[in-house]
């Protein structure tokens, strides 16, 4: 039976939550009628949607993400009443709150599933953050189901809601197609590292750059950083100050996984995460992964020295030592590459999508 399912997000932009929603919608569209409603149009991932998915713009010509969500509330309500879906699934706190407000009087009676994709206690600070946490506490218990991206994030949400909910833990879809890829042995003099993420404090690229500085007198290496964000100039200034001529910033790439394949090691230097989609993406093509053991996600994906390597968070010396140990221990490097590849098979669209298929209908 083909059920009508609405997915709601701020946009189909370039983040991990949006990529998860895209992959999930494409997978479920094989069996169900999927409608994706976004508060802001023209996101970077829209072209990746399958042709049988209906895309609805709830607002137009509003640049503010907050204002577009507020305006979208009423349009979302109309859409739900009109379509009468089996369920509505929202992603991230802004859309989650708007969805639950849109059905406040139960006129738009529908099963609601809200998905928490980040660490609320790490991400929501200041007055605005406190308002979001208060609304989560009041509104989330009214949802039919609350899904958290990792066990640790689920624990935070349950704490915020004072034990009134029990989160379902469903990991993100990390990959749609896992190709058989033998990671090439490094026969080059230069050890090639790659990192990927939004250029913000959260991702810890400043720590990574300082680790590279410590290693530059030990062996030849090159770091490629994929992504864009507000800290670009700050990071470029660190490179200038430390004379790091072996670091390249690529900006946003449509298909970063293809770039991963050209490197010997993927490094995640984050101070915190919700899950760490990019870890799974790197694993899926056999690239060994070194990650900080940050809250939350990496230690739920990686078994240390089996499917990757974990080092303490925020520690320049530990990160540098981790890179050096993998450069000098080729057997361990190859072993965690193979272990990571096997681990990535647990995060395919077929495995994760089948869980959501049961949940949403």
List the helices and strands and how they pair.
Elements: E1 4-9, H1 16-28, E2 33-38, E3 54-57, H2 65-83, E4 87-91, H3 93-102, E5 111-116, H4 120-123, H5 126-139, E6 145-148, H6 151-160, E7 168-169, E8 191-196, H7 205-215, E9 221-226, H8 232-242, E10 247-251, H9 256-260, E11 265-268, H10 277-283, E12 289-292, H11 298-301, E13 309-311, H12 316-328, H13 330-344, H14 349-360
Parallel strand pairs: 1-2, 1-4, 2-3, 4-5, 5-6, 6-7, 8-9, 8-11, 9-10, 11-12, 12-13
Short key terms for the protein model shown above:
361 residues, alpha/beta, Rossmann fold, six-stranded parallel sheet, 14 helices, 13 strands, 17% strand
Outline the structure in words.
By secondary structure, this protein is α/β, with parallel strands linked by helices. The chain folds into 2 domains: 4-170, Rossmann fold, CATH 3.40.50; 191-346, Rossmann fold (3-Layer(aba) Sandwich). Helix content is 41%, strand content 17%. It is built from 14 helices and 13 strands. The protein has helices at 16-28, 65-83, 93-102, 120-123, 126-139, 151-160, 205-215, 232-242, 256-260, 277-283, 298-301, 316-328, 330-344, 349-360, and strands at 4-9, 33-38, 54-57, 87-91, 111-116, 145-148, 168-169, 191-196, 221-226, 247-251, 265-268, 289-292, 309-311. Strands 3-2-1-4-5-6-7 form a 7-stranded parallel sheet, with helices on both faces. The protein has a 6-stranded parallel sheet with strand order 10-9-8-11-12-13, sandwiched between helices. Strand 6, helix 6 (151-160) and strand 7 form a beta-alpha-beta unit. The protein is globular and about 65 Å long. The N and C termini lie close together (10 Å).
């Amino acid at each position: 039976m083909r059920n009508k399912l609405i997915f709601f997000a701020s946009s189909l932009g370039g983040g991990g939550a949006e990529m998860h929603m895209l992959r999930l919608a494409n997978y479920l569209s094989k069996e169900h009628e999927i409608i994706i409603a976004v508060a802001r149009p023209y996101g970077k991932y829209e072209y990746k949607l399958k042709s049988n998915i209906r895309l609805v713009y709830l607002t137009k010509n509003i640049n503010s993400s907050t204002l577009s969500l507020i305006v979208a509330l009423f349009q979302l309500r109309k859409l739900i009443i009109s379509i009468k879906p089996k369920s509505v699934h929202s992603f991230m706190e802004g859309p989650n709150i708007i969805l639950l407000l849109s059905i406040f009087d139960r006129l738009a009676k529908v099963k609601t599933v809200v998905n928490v994709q980040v660490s609320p206690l790490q991400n929501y600070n200041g007055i605005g953050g406190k308002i979001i946490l208060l609304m989560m506490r009041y509104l989330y218990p009214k949802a039919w189901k609350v899904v958290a991206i990792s066990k640790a994030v689920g624990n935070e949400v349950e704490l915020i809601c004072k034990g009134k909910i029990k989160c379902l833990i469903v990991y993100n879809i990390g990959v749609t197609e896992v190709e058989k890829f033998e990671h090439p042995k490094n026969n080059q003099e230069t050890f090639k590292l790659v990192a990927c993420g939004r250029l913000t404090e959260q991702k810890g690229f400043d720590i990574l750059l300082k680790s590279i500085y410590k290693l530059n007198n030990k062996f030849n290496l090159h770091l490629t950083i994929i992504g864009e964000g507000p800290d670009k100039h700050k990071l470029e200034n660190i490179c200038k100050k430390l004379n790091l001529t072996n670091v390249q910033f690529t900006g946003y790439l449509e298909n970063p996984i293809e770039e991963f394949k050209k490197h010997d090691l993927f490094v995640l230097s984050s101070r915190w995460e919700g899950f760490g989609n990019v870890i799974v993406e790197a694993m899926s093509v056999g690239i060994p992964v070194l990650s900080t053991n940050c809250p939350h996600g990496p230690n739920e994906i990686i078994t240390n020295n089996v499917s990757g390597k974990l080092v303490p968070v925020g520690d320049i010396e530990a990160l540098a030592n981790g890179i050096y140990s993998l450069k000098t221990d080729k057997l361990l490097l190859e072993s965690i590459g193979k272990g990571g590849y096997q681990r990535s098979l647990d995060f395919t669209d077929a495995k994760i999508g089948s869980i959501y298929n049961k949940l949403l209908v």
